[in-house]
Amino acid sequence: MEIGKDMTRIAWPKLNHSLIAILRGIKPDEIESIGSALIEEGFEAIEIPLNSPEPFISIEKLVNIAPSNMLIGAGTVLTEADVDRLNSSGGRLFVSPNVNPPVIERAVSYGMIAMPGVFTASEALAAISAGASGLKFFPASVLGPDGIKAIRAVLPPDIEVAAVGGVSENDFASYATAGVRSIGMGSSLYAPGLDADGVRKRARMVIAAYNKVFAT
Predict the structure, then answer these.
(1) In this predicted model, what pLDDT tens digit does every residue of 45-63 receive, in sequence order?
(2) Active site residues
């Protein structure tokens, strides 16, 4: 699908575990140990929200230790300048809480995987028009699986849909019935103060729950 004059939509990649680890509040001196634990347990996408301490340093550190096929990037991306810094840090995953077409288009121009946050059908369609690779339905706990399923009915069938916000491994089966395969994991996976061993234990449980529901 053509986006604007010169851009082509970048499809959400096929992941073994379409789980996005959201490390809100993580510090640069923690990112390597915690990021390594997540990668070793099977996570393939990690988001560092920009309201974390020195987020671009953490992103660059994580990019340097992660496999090249990993999706490493930023969340809470609000401006084109943020996108520029994300690109300079080596990140290739763009996540935002809102739909701001110029910001999404800037991310797409860098070849990033773009997943803006949406809540309504109008926002979802506007994000797709701007070049989104996928849609982050947030807060998913408010919409619920039925709400996401109803909105998804009017969206292109090839657009990736993720449930983010208030979702734990106990909810995977409910979202699967709504056709949702991508899940963003925040405080149920990581919270400031939790060390790498604690994150590893949670990650292992999350991966096992994901495999139980989504393995084919």
Answers:
(1) 999 999 999 999 999 999 9
(2) 47, 136
